[in-house]
Amino acid sequence: MNQISQRIAALSPSATLAMSQKSAELKAAGVDVINMSVGEPDFDTPDFIKEAAKKAIDDNFSRYTPVAGYLSLRKAIAGKLLRENHIEFAPEQIVVGNGAKQELCNVLLATINPGDEVIIPVPAWVSYVEMVKLAEGVTVEVYAGVEQDFKITPEQLEKAITPKTRMIMLNSPSNPTGSIYSHDELKALADVLAKYPDIIILADEIYEHINFVGEVHSISEFENVRDRVVIINGVSKAYAMTGWRIGYMAGPLPIAKAVTKLQGQYTSGASSIAQKAAEAAYEGSLDCVEEMRKAFERRRNLIVSLAKEIPGWTVNEPQGAFYLFPEVKSFIGKRDGDRVINTSGDYVMYLLEVAHVACVDGAAFCAPGYMRLSYATSDDNIREAMRRIKEASERLK
Length: 397
Ligand code: PMP
Ligand code: GLU
What we know:
alpha/beta, seven-stranded mixed sheet, three-stranded antiparallel sheet, binds 4'-deoxy-4'-aminopyridoxal-5'-phosphate, binds glutamic acid
């Protein structure tokens, strides 16, 4: 039986998860692969959060949860948004789900009609385009390469807007580039969007705490667009809780209600135990987050300094998240024996098979000619991976 819907047949599998799987398979077969493909913190979840989960089990938090999430968790998230982001949300405007991924997809499904245009500044995280496809929207990609630090300008944004535009997906700090829009850059984008009241701003702020600039700004700070910003965030990255699957959306009440309706027919409320763990995270101190952030900053400095020694790479200095996104176009047309590099994807496969380092082709992020490395791994792994990449790259003539 091979009856697969057109909707799913047209969907691409997640390239980040696929590459991670491939690298795990090679490892299982005995190959010493360094995995810099998937983006997830390599730290353990902090103990006080794990304790809260254990207590939730003992206290019998074992039944169905409210579809939008426990009220106590939504109040804790509202507290976080007020304390850290200075924005007031009622708990009714917040919906908790199975990771930021589900909430991003829910918001798209709840707001986008077939043919509606969604602006995506690219390079962008692998799932954005596919989620828009699922919602039967039309993606409008706005490209910003390394020469503009991967950030779109207000002029580029204005040019991409048409009467059919219904949403822009903004991700700062960005996966895959690590770029962060400054206060003034965000204000300039907000000033453009203020002229178009029908556009929802989906602000994915999942990496906000992993930044090397002190303070990350949110487009929701600007009064002229605030009432149509939907914030996406969660515990995966900041608290090293990728497997717990808790993320949320916070935005206009009608959108929160629509997302709740969808979730009620589709997944129900997220795991009771994981929600109690997330509540402890949001009510606890940010010390554990700061400790991990410092490690990421040290690794950013290390990988950028080593990347500059690889001939043929052009890199920016990522200001957040835990990715490096070098431009590798100079290898196109080069060869090592019989092996010819025709695309950045060929280069990434060459690095996997020859250097045993797993990365992800930039094409998966709508930016062929680039590749992504996740430096959420030990300093030793970073050093060894970069040594191997340099050696293999130097063999390409
Ligand atoms: N947005 C971005 C930009 C991400 O990199 C990720 C991580 N995969 C997510 C959302 C989803 O995070 P979560 O684990 O909470 O689903
Ligand atoms: N954010 C991670 C990445 O980009 C997780 C994998 C995924 O969900 O795509 O690698």
